[in-house]
Specification:
- One of its GO terms (molecular function) is nucleic acid binding.
- Residues 240-324 form the DHHA1 domain.
- This is Phosphoesterase RecJ-like protein.
- Residues 20-160 form the DDH domain.
- This protein is of the alpha/beta class.
- It has two domains: 8-200, Alpha-Beta Complex (inorganic pyrophosphatase (n-terminal core)), CATH 3.90.1640; 205-325, Roll (Diaminopimelate Epimerase, Chain A, domain 1), CATH 3.10.310.30.
- It has twelve helices and eleven strands.
- The chain has helices at residues 8-17, 31-46, 98-104, 135-146, 152-165, 176-187, 192-200, 205-217, 233-239, 249-254, 286-291, 310-325; strands spanning 20-25, 50-54, 84-88, 110-114, 125-128, 219-221, 226-231, 261-267, 273-279, 296-297, 301-306.
- A six-stranded mixed beta sheet has the order 6-7-8-9-11-10.
- Strand 3 (84-88), helix 3 (98-104) and strand 4 (110-114) form a beta-alpha-beta unit.
- The longest helix is centred in the N-terminal third of the chain and has 16 residues, at 31-46.
- The chain is globular and about 55 Å long.
- The mean pLDDT is 95.
C-alpha cells in the first residue's frame, strides 16, 4: 500500500469514474467525521452517484440538525455492492469499526483521506496531511479540485467539520486557507450564524448537568498546570447521557489560565477507560504521552484506551503527563 500524498485531482478522477461509493469515518464520530462524510456524500449524490454513508455509531444527537443525516447507515449493513470505498478522518483502518471495515472491504479500491500524522496510509490511494486543521477542509479542496457540486447542504456539513475541529477557528492549526474557505461559503450564501448558534449555543439540559459535575469534581495538579476529570458510568446513567453531549467539555477545563493540558477519563461499557487529552502549549506533545498507552493523534489533541478501574488509569496517565509538564520551563 502506498503512503504517498496522492494529489486530490487524482482522487477526484477515481470518484468521478465510480458509480457506487461507500464513505465512512471513525467510531464515536465528531463534527469533522460526520461533516466530512456527509459533505462528500451529498456532493457525489448531486452528481447522480449511488453513495452509502456509513458510521458504526450513527449520528451524535448534537449534530442531528444537519441536512440529510437520516441517510447515514449503521450496522447491520445491507448486502450492497460498491466500486470504491473512502475512509475519512480515521487514523487506522480498524477505527472505522468492525462492521464498517467489513463493509468497506467489499470494494476493490480504498481511498484514505486524513489529517492524523500517525496514519500509516492504509488505502490504495492516501491523502494524509497532518498540517490540515480538519478533514472537512481537505474534502472541500477535493470537491473544488474535481469541480464537484458544492451545494448549501454540502457547505453546512463541511463548515461544521471545519468549525468544530478548529475550535471555531481558534486552534493553532487554523490557517489562512481555513478562513478563505469560510469566506467562500459566506459569499455563496451559507448562514454561518445559524450554524454557529446550533453548534455552540444550543444544548440539552443534560450537558449542563455534566458541566456542573465536571466543575465540582475536576482535579487540578502540577501547580495548576494539569486539569482533569473522571467521567463515570454512574454519572452517565444518572444524566442519561447521549452521544455528543460531552463534545467540547474538555475545552472548559483548558480555559483555566494556569492550565497547559486538560484530560478527561471516561468509563466505557466494556470497562476500558477512554482518555482524551488536550494541550495548549506547543512544547507539550500529548500524542507522545498517549502513545505510551497505545494511543495517539495530534500533538495538541490526542487520545488513548486504558485498562480500568478509572481511578488507577487516571493516576497512571496523570503521572506520565506530569513528568512531561515538569520538563517545561
Amino acid at each position: 500500500m502506498s503512503s504517498t500524498l496522492t494529489p486530490l485531482s487524482e482522487i477526484a478522477d477515481v470518484l468521478r469514474s465510480a458509480q457506487r461509493i461507500a464513505i465512512a469515518a471513525h467510531v464515536r464520530p465528531d463534527g469533522d467525521a460526520l461533516g466530512s462524510v456527509m459533505g462528500l456524500a451529498l456532493s457525489l449524490r448531486a452528481m447522480g452517484k449511488e453513495v452509502y454513508a456509513l458510521l458504526e455509531d450513527g449520528v451524535p444527537t448534537n449534530l442531528a440538525f444537519l441536512p440529510e443525516v437520516a441517510t447515514v447507515l449503521t450496522p447491520p449493513y445491507a448486502d450492497f455492492e460498491i466500486d470504491v470505498a473512502v475512509a475519512l478522518d480515521t487514523a487506522t483502518h480498524e477505527r472505522v469499526g468492525e462492521h464498517t471495515k467489513a463493509a468497506l472491504a467489499r470494494a476493490p479500491f480504498l481511498i484514505d483521506i486524513d489529517h492524523h500524522p500517525t496514519n500509516p496510509g492504509y488505502g490504495q490511494m492516501n491523502h494524509v496531511d497532518g498540517t490540515e486543521p480538519a478533514v472537512g477542509q481537505i474534502v472541500y479542496n477535493l470537491l473544488q479540485a474535481g469541480g464537484f457540486p458544492i451545494t448549501d447542504a454540502v457547505m453546512q456539513h463541511l463548515f461544521t467539520a471545519i468549525s468544530t475541529d478548529t475550535g471555531s477557528f481558534q486552534y493553532s492549526s487554523t490557517n489562512a486557507r481555513t478562513h478563505q474557505i469560510a469566506a467562500e461559503m459566506l459569499t455563496a450564501g451559507l448562514d454561518t450564524a445559524r450554524l454557529a448558534q446550533l453548534l455552540y449555543q444550543t444544548h440539552p439540559a443534560r450537558r449542563l448537568l455534566l458541566l456542573r459535575a465536571m466543575l465540582n469534581e475536576m482535579d487540578i495538579r502540577a501547580e495548576g498546570r494539569i486539569a482533569s476529570w473522571q467521567f463515570t458510568r454512574a454519572l452517565m446513567d444518572e444524566v442519561q447521557v447521549q452521544p455528543g453531549d460531552t463534545e467540547g467539555l474538555i475545552d472548559t477545563l483548558r480555559m483555566i489560565d494556569t492550565v497547559v493540558t486538560a484530560v478527561i477519563f471516561e468509563e466505557m461499557p466494556d470497562g476500558k477507560i477512554r482518555v482524551s487529552a488536550r494541550s495548549k502549549d506547543q512544547r507539550l506533545d500529548v500524542s507522545a504521552v498517549c502513545g505510551q498507552f497505545g494511543g495517539g493523534g495530534h500533538r495538541m489533541a490526542s487520545g488513548a484506551r486504558m485498562k480500568g478501574p478509572i481511578q488507577v488509569a487516571a493516576e497512571t496517565f496523570l503521572t506520565a503527563l506530569e513528568h512531561e509538564v515538569r520538563r517545561l520551563a
